[in-house]
Amino acid sequence: MSEIKIHILHTGKVCVASALPFGGDHCNIIKASGLFDKKEDRLWLPVSSYLIECPHGLILFDCGWHRNMSPEGIEDKEAQIKSLGSKLMYKVNQGVVPLRKAINEQLFDLGIKPQDLDLVLLS
Fold first, then answer.
1. Which strand (E) or helix (H) includes residue 60?
2. What is the pTM of this model?
3. What are the helix (H) ranges across 1-117?
4. Which regions in the chain score pLDDT beneath 70?
């Protein structure tokens, strides 16, 4: 059997409504959006990507946030509104990408160029 190696690459965090991951059968789109939640009731969750090295090549599963979500590595409301395209999307998904943690930065640190990837899967 050939060896498979999986790299877990944390690419920041996202602030979401608690109903989004934990709403279950009682969740609806309004609850999942968090539009009417207090900020202190929301959850910060990790945003991760997975680089899989296998006999078939390099596979990247998810890409995380782009650097333009937080150009300085901190929460940046104006940059996120611009990146997401609307204030509504910012209200639903606030994110932070620490410096050197965007997926392209981490791949570069591993010596991997985008053209080295054989497959990219988005969930």
1. strand 57-61
2. 0.85
3. 19-22, 29-33, 77-84, 87-92, 103-109
4. 1
